[in-house]
Amino acid sequence: MTFFKFLIIFSLLAINSAVSACQLSVHIVSYPPLAIPPNTAFNQSNQWQGTNFSYLDALFKQAKCDYTLIDAPFGRGINLLERGQIDMTLNFSKTPEREQYFQFIGPHREEKILLATPRWRFPPISTWQELEQADAHFIWQTGAYYGENMEELVSDQSNFKGTISYQSDNEVMIDLVARKRADGFFVESDFLSFHQQYDQRYQQLSANPLIINSEPVYFAFSKSSVDQATFERFERAFDTLKEQGMWQRLEANAVNTLLQQLLDQPKN
């Protein structure tokens, strides 16, 4: 009897240990207001801040897991995720190509991509035909997905009069536009509106009326490193939070909550 009691206790301890050992690595990249590095102009604390962490904290708490952050440029981060050197990311568009490497949970929010250009450069672009005919140099973030219309536009070089270059760093993008070495870049709407409140360079830009892409984005888990049991654990956690209305509340309030947190920071 004593031996069987020992086996039961040992099994329970093993299960508890497995539960407590649940920890994934999460790809993060500086992209205010979604993710703001510590000890920077926008974030004077010693920890990352941003709306991403409202979503991550909710999901991981419900799944009873922990996470560590890995900071890497967007394109490199995707490569690390594909190889299983990073376990998951968020705000990820679902495409057939990406489904070869990732399992998706969600969506958790809606993402809107705009074209930001200097106010003086040319008349506002309102249609795909106007974008197609724009004799301009636009910057595409390395590894980003901007929807089927953009994919078709850049693949048909016979009709597209502009040029596209690729950059991974948003600071490089805004610098190139400020120095008139590029005419604009594609950008997430929250990122643009956030920076227009604080950065004079962005205040010189306007969002064109044409919405480049608007679609739901997901949590993405690497097939190379996240086993099916762990994935299903997060799937159940997501569904529970969805039933509670968590994702809808976060999307409605996350940016305003973050701005208030930043305003409440002690000033140096």
Structural write-up:
- By secondary structure, this protein is α/β, with parallel strands linked by helices.
- β1, α2 and β2 form a beta-alpha-beta unit.
- The strands form 2 sheets. A 6-stranded mixed beta sheet has the order 3-8-4-7-5-6. Strands 1-2 form a two-stranded parallel ribbon.
- The chain folds into 2 domains: 137 residues, D-Maltodextrin-Binding Protein, domain 2 (3-Layer(aba) Sandwich), CATH 3.40.190.10; 104 residues, Periplasmic binding protein-like II (D-Maltodextrin-Binding Protein, domain 2, 3-Layer(aba) Sandwich).
- 41% of the residues lie in helices and 25% in strands.
- α2 packs across α9 and α2 packs across α10.
- The N and C termini lie far apart (65 Å).
Q: What is shown here, in short?
A:
With 268 residues, this protein is α/β, with parallel strands linked by helices. The protein contains 10 helices and 8 strands.
Question: What structural keywords apply?
Answer:
2 domains; about 40% helix; D-Maltodextrin-Binding Protein, domain 2; 6-stranded mixed beta sheet; globular; two-stranded parallel ribbon; alpha/beta
Question: Which SSEs are present, and which pair or pack?
Answer:
Layout: H1 2-20, E1 23-28, H2 51-63, E2 66-71, H3 74-83, E3 88-92, E4 102-118, H4 128-133, E5 137-141, H5 148-155, E6 163-167, H6 170-178, E7 184-188, H7 189-196, H8 200-203, E8 205-222, H9 228-243, H10 246-263
Parallel strand pairs: 1-2, 5-6, 5-7
Antiparallel strand pairs: 3-8, 4-7, 4-8
Helix pairs in contact: 2-9, 2-10
| Percent of residues in helices | 40-55%
CATH topology of the largest domain: D-Maltodextrin-Binding Protein, domain 2
Nearest-integer average pLDDT: 88
CATH architecture of the largest domain: 3-Layer(aba) Sandwich
Return the CATH class of the largest domain. Answer: Alpha Beta
Radius of gyration: 21 Å
Look at the structure and name the CATH superfamily of the largest domain.
Periplasmic binding protein-like II
Give the beta-strand count: 8
Q: Biggest sheet, in brief?
A: 6 strands, mixed
End-to-end gap: 65 Å
Residue runs with pLDDT of under 50 for 5 or more positions: 6-20
Beta-strand percent range: 25-35%
Structural class: alpha/beta
Order of helices and strands: HEHEHEEHEHEHEHHEHH
Oligomerization state: single chain
Shape: globular
Q: Strand order, main sheet: write it out.
A: 3-8-4-7-5-6
Count of DSSP-assigned helices:
10
Overall structural domain count:
2
